[in-house]
Amino acid sequence: MKKLIIIKYGELTTKKENINLFINTLKQNISKKLINYKIFINYDKGRMFIKGEEEDFKTIIKELQEVFGIHEIIIGYELDTLEYEKIEKQLVDLLKDKVFKTFKIETKRSNKKINLTSVEISSKIGSYLLKNISNIKVDVHNPELLINLELRNKESYIYFEKIKGLGGYPVGTLGKGILMLSGGIDSPVAGYMTIKRGVKIEALYFESPPHTSQEAKNKVISLAKILSKYNNEIKLHVINFTEIQESIYKNIPHEYLITIMRRMMYRIAEIIAGHENAKIIINGESIGQVASQTLTSMVAINEVVKIPVIRPLACFDKLEIINISKRINAYETSILPYEDCCTIFVPDHPVINPNTKTCHEYEELILFKDLIYKAIKNHEIIKINNQEKNKYKDIL
């Protein structure tokens, strides 16, 4: 009898023809996550099995709770037999250290060659337990102990408890996106929600020194590190936005500052996405939360890009977003009091219903194309936690 960790897939099982891609990617992601442990992984379309040192199981489970694509995590026991008599005896041994008065057995048999039904197997093994363990009885509605038995090809598996996984899809199965990562509460949560759907993200941060500080940049790097737990790693693109932002501030009516600034950011995000083979732009906008997040503003800002802009939090209220931020341990970092370039130069009365024609007219007042290409050409790339050579200098 071997103790092991069993992974249940959940939503992955709906993929049918593509299920092998999803399960293979999940295995690769788990292997990366558990690179520091001595483990062996095998799997089929129904389950994944992880064998390793039992003393590592507690920390391994914590790591697995940060991997998308897992429905449930189980510590179970593998028996090299499908014979009921052997299963019954080993189950009694497993129950010696457990204190319970009522129990229920749930049996699943993927091996349909077994001559008894699942209900008949549960009844047979339950009867054996009643004869061999004193002072217990069956309770099919509210048992103190639920005994799970799975009969597969040549092995059987017993387990008692299930630990909820994150669900979603394995990272990398649904392509790549560029996350516009600020230092606020919303964008890290938007990144987390996107990763959950199997999209691998790279992050894009706009700094504006000397108007923004090194502390603000460090804050965003810390948020990227938090997201990297779920994304395997994060490539963070840092754009120096100072010249663009100052040019907007000097030449454009202030009520349109935020709208024009966001249009410039979207243009940059689309160019970065193109070079990184990313299919979408992601941000933390929530409808109506600020002036640039009204529907009219979104239309005016979206107009400058052709690729989809995904807003995972569009219909979330602030308290819902904060709850997720706390759950992923990003909240305390997000509320550190360092301003990013989205919060400086904010006008007293920003336009909430910008006109796209007016945006075009104002943008003709600045040489924004030259400024954008200069910013991209000289931008910094941080691969959490390593520096990567800036490949853009020779492209644009």
Question: Care to describe what's here?
Answer:
It is a single chain. With 396 residues, the chain is an alpha/beta fold. The protein folds into two domains: 2-167, 2-Layer Sandwich (VC0802-like); 176-394, 3-Layer(aba) Sandwich (Rossmann fold), CATH 3.40.50.620. The chain contains 13 helices and 16 strands. Helix 9 (295-302) links the parallel strand 13 (280-282) and strand 14. The longest helix has 19 residues, at 257-275. The radius of gyration is 27 Å and the shape is elongated. The N and C termini lie far apart (61 Å). The model is unreliable at 386-396 (pLDDT under 50).
Which homologous superfamily in CATH is the superfamily of the largest domain?
HUPs
Low-confidence stretches: 386-396
Our count of helices gives: 13
Order of helices and strands: EHEEHEHEHEEEEEHEHEHHEHEHHHHEE
Shape: elongated
Task: Give the quaternary arrangement of the chains.
Answer: single chain
Q: How much β-strand is present in the residues?
A: 15-25%
User: Quick one: biggest sheet?
Assistant: 9 strands, mixed
Which CATH architecture of the largest domain is right?
A: 3-Layer(aba) Sandwich
Number of strands: 16
Count of structural domains: 2
Report Rg: 27 Å
CATH topology of the largest domain: Rossmann fold
Instruction: Classify the secondary structure makeup into a structural class.
Output: alpha/beta
